[in-house]
Specification:
Largest sheet: 5 strands, mixed
Distance between the termini: 119 Å
Strand content: 5-15%
Strand order of the largest sheet: 5-4-1-6-9
Radius of gyration: 37 Å
CATH architecture of the largest domain: 2-Layer Sandwich
Shape: elongated
Helix content: 40-55%
CATH topology of the largest domain: Nucleotidyltransferase, domain 5
């Protein structure tokens, strides 16, 4: 301590003056300490190491055998000889043996990333973010695109590793970036590759190769199961989820009004936490990027099914209902990442959400209720009957009707559903909620009276035709 006596400095360091003088004149204790290679207590594994442990280690050519497993084996072979506190000693001995005599380990090679050369993309699961939409847990993925050189990142919410989600995400990234790198690196996801039957390998699908050709991109892929070969993407996924996790904690609530609001939140977080710090590097890399083409490629897949007599069509082993007037007609279906558009002779006639997860059919009761109300007996054994409950309130109402009316409940419920289709579903649902809360028995007539009261009769008022001569005489002086 400058300006202080040795006694004062020693007291401040909480040591004796003698130790302070010794340290000041000579080397520090840590500088003269010699490493110790000898044991201070007997080796508990001396008698079993060569005959029991080493053969196990030598047979483990991949280095997968854990010291914990070896210790448990020794306890079984020699009951009462080894104690739990001696396991750590075995772990150190196994570690040291493998460092000298163990199998070779895989070497990882850090890569140089020239500007404008490579972009990587991947889908990553986002369940741990625990995001909710209007109170319901959002099971989703994140499509992450990242430039390997500058680290610029683009993220889009997705609901499956589909071709449509892949193309939508990739194009969204390239157009937001304003340029195209030389190559994209990715794994062997089925949306972009297919298996080669003869060789057992994988190759790009014709559709995805067409997308790459449109943008002048080349593709490189990692080997199946070797995620470390796409380390830039894996690290990018971690950084994205870390940034979103921190932002969600600060936001307190993880509930969003809609997926669009959540996507806007994701964009804002990624721009602030990842892209802004890389602005200088991105400015350099942009000068190396290729120009964008004049237009994007379609992000949907086109099908031309025929609407069946059940007022449904099948797309990708999933069933969707459509208006019954289309039965027997061939339609064009454009399957996007999150929805389907149905066209008849070039005119869009219906838009439906795309099915996700384990759900294989979607029936909109409005498409079939007009026929069902004429033959309500079909409701009892309708294959997709569970699809005809628009909400939990409708389901509870049907269960209540079954308790009160027995088989007659089917007729009453179908008429209530018809009322919802011909008026407003929200009004009917509200009426059912009030009746269920009251606990009183009801039927179609009661629900109709509460949800759609009879219109008030407006009296007819007769207004005679005006005499325009009065107007002319008063304001124009005509007839005076």
């Amino acid at each position: 301590m400058e300006g202080k006596t040795q006694e004062t400095a020693a007291a401040a360091a909480e040591m004796s003056v003698r130790s302070a003088r010794k340290w000041e004149q000579g080397p520090l204790p840590s500088e003269v300490r010699k490493p110790r290679w000898w044991r201070t207590r007997p080796d508990p594994y001396a008698e079993v190491w060569e005959q029991d442990v080493v053969p196990l280690l030598e047979a483990d050519r991949k280095g997968e055998l854990q010291a914990k497993t070896i210790f448990e084996e020794l306890v079984e072979r020699y009951p009462g000889r080894f104690q739990p506190g001696q396991r750590r000693t075995l772990e150190r001995r196994v570690r040291d043996w493998r460092a000298v005599s163990g199998p070779e380990k895989e070497v990882y090679f850090p890569q140089e990333h020239p500007p404008g050369r490579e972009g990587v993309f991947d889908f990553t699961r986002a369940k741990k973010l625990e995001v909710r939409i209007a109170g319901e847990l959002l099971v989703h993925l994140l499509f992450v695109f990242k430039l390997s050189c500058s680290g610029w990142t683009w993220v889009q919410v997705a609901f499956g590793e589909t071709y449509e989600a892949l193309v939508e995400g990739l194009q969204g990234a390239l157009w937001a970036l304003g340029g195209v790198p030389e190559i994209v690196r990715h794994d062997n996801l089925s949306a972009a590759t297919h298996e080669l039957k003869r060789s057992g390998g994988r190759s790009l699908t014709r559709r995805f190769q067409g997308v790459l050709d449109h943008y002048g991109l080349d593709s490189t892929r990692i080997r199946p199961g070797e995620a470390h070969e796409n380390g830039v993407a894996e690290k990018g996924n971690d950084l994205v989820k870390q940034a979103l996790t921190q932002a969600l904690v600060l936001r307190v609530s993880r509930d969003f009004a809609s997926v669009a609001h959540y996507q806007a939140f994701v964009n804002e977080v990624i721009d602030r936490a990842i892209n802004r710090p890389q602005a200088a590097a991105l400015a350099v890399e942009k000068s190396y990027l290729q120009a964008l083409p004049s237009a994007r490629v379609p992000t949907y897949t086109t099908y031309r099914p025929k609407v069946r007599r059940w007022s449904t069509l099948r797309i990708g082993n999933r069933g969707y209902s459509v208006p019954s007037r289309l039965i027997g007609h061939e339609v064009e279906v454009r399957q996007h990442a999150n929805h389907l558009e149905v066209y008849y002779r070039g005119r869009r006639v219906e838009t439906v959400p795309r099915l996700r997860g384990d759900r294989v059919v979607r029936i909109d009761y409005r498409h079939v209720i007009w026929s069902l109300v004429r033959k309500p007996g079909a409701f009892a054994r309708y294959r997709f009957r569970e699809e005809l409950f628009p909400s939990l309130v409708f389901r509870r109402a049907y269960d209540a009707l079954r308790r009160w009316r027995g088989e007659r409940a089917d007729v009453e419920y179908v008429r209530i559903l018809h009322l919802a289709a011909s008026t407003l579903e929200a009004d009917v649902e509200q009426a059912l909620s009030l009746l269920l809360e009251a606990g009183e028995r009801f039927d179609y007539a009661v629900v109709k009276e509460l949800a759609k009261p009879e219109p008030v009769t407006v009296p007819t008022v007769h207004i005679p035709e005006p005499d325009l001569s009065v107007y002319d005489a008063r304001y124009l002086g005509v007839g005076r």
